[in-house]
User: Fold this.
Amino acid sequence: MSVPHMTSEQFRSLGHELVDWIACYLDGVESLPVRPRVEPGEIAAMLPTEPPARGEDWRAIIADLDRIIVPGLTHWQSPNFFAYFPANGSHPGILGDLVSTGLGVNGMLWATSPAATELETRVLDWLGEMIGLPESFLSHSPSGGGVIQGTASEAALVALVAARHRAMRSHAPRAATTDLAGRLVLYTSAQAHSSVVKAAMIAGLAAHPEDRRRVRMVETDGNLAMRPDALAAAMSRDDEAGLVPFFVCATVGTTSSTAIDPLDRIGPVCRGHDAGGPYGLGGVWLHVDAAMAGAACVCPEHRDLIRGVEHADSFCFNPHKWMLTNFDCDCLWTRDRQSVVNALSISPEYLRNSASAAGSVIDYRDWQVPLGRRFRALKLWFVIRHYGVEGLRAHIREHMRLAAMFEACVRADDHFEVVTPRTITLVCFRLRPRPGESIGACDQRNRQLLESVNRSGRALLSHTVLPVTAQGGPADQPVFVLRMAIGGTATQERHVRAAWDLVRDCAANTGRT
Ligand code: PLP
Assistant:
């Protein structure tokens, strides 16, 4: 049979229809239950076990989208989605992804699509300046530059292997490298995202998530931020044991509570340790994971969050979390691009070309784990050009205002307490313990409260456990808290107020207050 390609007329007509479909979905998503009401296996049961032998009618495909898929979704674009951190999307971001898919280029090398590379470099320079990164992270500096990764997890892995490469180079004159590789030690805080330990597992530094032979979880203070003195002490202990500190991952805006590790005090600990590597940057590599909070730095008044970033070797944040750019888009900058490229570059004959050989271009495949890469810079370019810097600032400022408003509501109600200081738009709160109530019993009431809020479908919150009390001291055991993460593209004041009313009603109706 002949290949039943869609004609361009059919594509045009269905494409318009599906863009309409997306616009209607986004317009109406607010009225859908945020969490799907399905049991495991329910969606699979509606899908045929065999693929169709012959191409199907598009009416049937679109009908199944409505009938099977949408009811089985968690609606991340709902203005009532307050769980995890958001996955921002926007009309300009969607269009950017659409065009990128339509163009279908693979920008693995400069030569395989020069515009994809050069636009990415320019947009990352724009964005670096927009969030106040020092010049040394930008592409026109002698050794810096930025790149788009899929996720912050990939950024951590890339930074880690670059750090390892630099450590091996700088220590090589003093130690046999084979021996050195087994003595490298990584540091992060007990509150860091699990992706740091996962990167250690992938890179062979840890055999499993609890393996602490070459991974240190540095203690945190009463605000759950990494303690620089504890970091310095851990490094000294490892030095004395003949191990080699090589990588620190600090977090600006931890996942559980958006705690801010103090870069201005962690940086000097890293820099002061064995300074003088091969590129004049030396020391222990400091990577900063600002996955969610980094977006706040487009507002000059929030740049304090990254005070001391000039000490970092690499820095990343996710425009796909809170900067209106559809998933996936993590931006990673480094001040030591040579170490990144040296760690990840490999040039088989079939990828060689004159531009790469001349060394006059960036080949972004050398800055990431995969070879192939989508044209993700397009959506970021569309978003920045559509909103402008002032528009993006307005987006951040409005959510900061809404978070402060929600926090004030919690603080004004005696039945509840805010558990950790709010730094950006995440409010960690819970039902206050009753006099004499055990931690376990209070946790149980809070678990039930969260479940009844989420079961309602009118809002979705998430939870974590934090090793502190609302008074700022250490808790006897980690306490269960509700996370209200504000940042959805469509979230407005009325949604935040409704979520608070819902929390209070659920608490009161079930007699849990
Ligand atoms: N780092 C932090 C601080 C995060 O909060 C998250 C996810 O929420 C991640 C890393 C992982 O993000 P990604 O899904 O981009 O790997």
